[in-house]
Model the fold of this input.
Amino acid sequence: MCVFRPAFRRTRGARRRRTARIPGAALVALGCLPGLAAVTALVLCASGVERPTAAVRPLAARPAALHAASRPPIVPRSEWLDEDTRRKQPPPRYDDKVVAVFIHHTDSPNAYDCAEAPRIIRYLYTGQTGGRDWDDIGYNFLVDRCGTIYEGRAGGTDRPVTGAHTQGFNHRTAGIAALGTFTAGAEVPKAMTDSIAALAAWKLGLSDTDPRAKVRLVSSNSGSRYSRGTTATLHALAGHTDGYMTSCPGAALSARLPEIRGLAARLQGRR
Done:
């Protein structure tokens, strides 16, 4: 018999309307996994990440981008992270700019109400900072099935925060995680892909990077697809699998990446 035993206590945030409980079916599915696996099931796509190094690059003055896109609405961390759940962490680390984004899926259940997204993100945060002992959630942003964008890793949504999402390629990149599992045959909501495109268009627009382009990134970890120090040519809007040996972000979402790149480019005013 499968019984779900959460790995962390109920928080005050659970009383908010937006943070309703994860549906019973999802909890039963997670309850079939022993011990900490019930939490790590929500962070399977986190395999293939690395903690950022202590080095901090200086922040340079940013010239006006020729192909800037509007900043989409982003729900702040305070909407999903409460004081009962928050862990102490070091100051954020920064790069000089973001020239690529990596798309992930969280490998968590798809049948959730969008009002439950903050609670699900807390599960992810707790699994990564608890069981994995990371200093913060690895993703810079998360997007739910209704297209709501959430701030993930701390440091400022408009700044080039060094994440912990793609092993070997956390520098000069941002990680965007789609809440759900998007393997072959899964439905990928249009609201979700539209928001991912809008977020990527804005974030890449800050460095005047075309989302359809390819960029050169230097691998910082030989555990990636490229040995440490190798310069790799990757999509500016890439899937996790492009930088690391994984099926993330799932075949269904991976198939939508060309469409997302095109929409992001149009949002930047490119032809």
Notes: The first strand starts at residue 100 and ends at 105.
